[in-house]
Structures are given as C-alpha cells and as structure tokens.
Amino acid sequence: MGKATFLKEHTFYIWEPSKLSQSMWGGPASPPFTVLEEGTASGSACEKTNPTIFPDSFISSWRPIFLIRHPAMTFESWYRAESGARDVDLADRSWAFYTTYQYSRQMYDWYLSQGPAPGSEPIVIDADDILDKGPTIRRLCVLLGMDENRVLFDWDTIKAPEGAGCRELKFMSDYWNSTSVDSSKSSRGLDINVARARWEKDFGAKAAEQLWQIVEDSMVDYNYLKSNKL
To answer: Which domain of life is it from (predicted)?
Structure first.
C-alpha cells in the first residue's frame, strides 16, 4: 500500500515498429504489431488507436509523464556521448528517432484525444524546472498522491558496473558520479550561437551545422509540449 510503479523509457522504444520505420524512411504501411495483454487469446481483436505496440486498454491505464528538455541541450548531450563511443553520421536517418520530440508530442496528443478524466491527464515536466529545484517536483508528488517529503535532492555515487562497455560509460558516468541535481545543465540563458560555436570546435563544422538544423527542426514540438508543462 502507498506505493506506485514507475516505468521510465524513451517514447520511441515502445513505438509500433512499422510506424517508426515509416516516420524515418517513408514507404507503404505495414501490418501493425501489438503486444497482447496477459490472458488475451492470440488473434483476438483489441482496440488499437494509439501509435505504440500496446493496446489502448493497457496504455490508457497509465498516468503518462513526459519529461522534456531544450533540444540544444538534449541532442548535444546525446551526440557527445554517442559519437564518443562509435561513429555517428547525423545525415543517416537511422539516428532520426534520437533527435526529435515528434513521438512524445504524438503520444501526448493521443492521451488528450481520449478525453481523460480529471486526475488522469498527461503531465509534461520541463527539465529546467527540476534543475532549478523549484516547486515542480513537489507539485508532481501532490498530483500523484505521493509524499513530497520523501523526495531526495542529494544521494551517494554509484559504482560503475563491472564490464560496462564504452557506450554505457559515455552515457551513464555523469549519473553514476553525481551526488545532487546539477543546475549547470539548465538551458536558462542559453545562447544558441554560443552553443553552435562550441559544437564547431568540438565536433567540426559539418556536424555542428547538422546538429543546429536538427535542433531548429525540433523546436516546434518542444515549444508545444513546453506550453503544456506543469
């Protein structure tokens, strides 16, 4: 009693495969794939209007929380870690699902289209509001019926797992070595021209131009979600 299950995942990892492929490559539609709930007979019809691998009945039982962050911060962080572990060509559409907020926006809009009852609406959290250590997390606790006094803002470091690979180390080391919320990661006061100059220095002119264009293309979806944040 008094406990809840939290599941954290990137939206595109639960996207219906044919829809994900179409969004990147185009082409004709493929038969959809749906994970059936336990006890559902294979071949049984289930209502499916959402764009994920799950039936509506299952995904509607969630209280969705969408965590967003300014694209310049999000995609620089991803590219820095990913390219530090392997070669990344930003022009290759195979990477496209890492550098967009379109899936989060589509999922958010789907939840709204279902006419959620009061207390079950989708929630949007902007990372900057967490980094500022403002009231957002406490407000979230109230919405979820959780004890805001149990929120931790300081913690111990975590030892890296034995045998952690290069990619895992690139993505996870800052988290494992952290002891508190790092407010320096906020996008408050971001100057995109300064960021672009940093990208040119760190990644080269071509990658910097590509990264800048990806950020620009993502701003509409980001700003839409941000306009609905908690």
So the answer is: Eukaryota
Nearest-10 crossing angle of helices 205-226, 71-85: 140
Q: How many domains does the chain have?
A: 2
Distance CA 62, CA 39 (A): 19
Find how far residue 195's CA is from the centre of its chain: 21
Asked if 30 and 142 sit in the same domain, the reply is no
Domain range spanning residue 151? 67-226
Residues 133 and 184 occupy one common structural domain: yes
**Structural domain contains residue 2:** no
Write down the pTM of the prediction: 0.91
Q: In terms of domains, do 208 and 181 share one?
A: yes
Are residues 193 and 179 located together in one domain of the fold?
yes
Residue 111 inside a domain? The answer is yes
Q: What single-letter amino acid sits at 199?
A: W
Distance CA 30, CA 18 (A): 6
124 three-state secondary structure: strand
Instruction: Assess if residue 51 is contained within a domain.
Output: yes
Name residues whose C-beta falls within 8 Å of residue 8's C-beta, 6 or more positions apart in sequence: none
Distance (Å, rounded) from C-alpha 96 to C-alpha 23?
9
- Same domain (yes/no): 102, 180: yes
